[in-house]
């Protein structure tokens, strides 16, 4: 049975996933230095995080050899009392078929401007973006641990849960 703190953390995490558009993804190949990249993402109700990226990026190459990742999701803030967001770890994989279609729908719902660009590109620049989006991988981060942090509730406040 979930305690009140974990239930509140799940609700807060869901709100952050709906409201915040970017996550910082930390990857590492088996032999290389760690790398962090910021990507736009959309999430489902089970806390799976979907993002699109070219497999030739540094993080795409890292993921090809090591599927363990960490990520942070947080809004910008001006002082330590405002620090809040999510820290998580999990595994990532390329999604295809029905799961890719689901990811695309979630992504378009969260970013309607990208849906419009995808459906009806205006000009050469948008056609290039739409073409790359169609060809790029959709990845899914499946968290195995999520930590909610919220300094407004007290310095260092955190609650962890398993999705």
Give keywords.
36% helix; Pnp Oxidase, Chain A; alpha+beta; eight-stranded antiparallel beta sheet; single chain; 163 residues; 5 helices
Structural account:
- With 163 residues, this protein is an alpha+beta fold.
- The protein has one domain (4-150): Pnp Oxidase, Chain A, CATH 2.30.110.
- The protein contains 5 helices and 8 strands.
- Strands 1, 2, 3, 4, 5, 6, 7 and 8 form an 8-stranded antiparallel β-sheet that branches.
- Helix 3 (97-110) crosses helix 4 and helix 4 crosses helix 5.
- The longest helix has 16 residues, at 4-19.
- It is globular and about 50 Å long.
- It starts with a helix and ends with a strand.
Question: Level of helix content?
Answer: 25-40%
Q: Segments where pLDDT lies below 50 for 5+ residues?
A: none
Per CATH, the superfamily is Electron Transport, Fmn-binding Protein, Chain A
Number of DSSP strand runs: 8
Question: What is the number of independent domains?
Answer: 1
Class derived from helix and strand content: alpha+beta
**Mind telling me the C-alpha Rg?**
17 Å
Query: Kindly, what is the distance between the CA atoms of the first and last residues, rounded to a whole number of angstroms?
Result: 14 Å
Shape: globular
CATH class: Mainly Beta
Largest pleated sheet: 8 strands, antiparallel
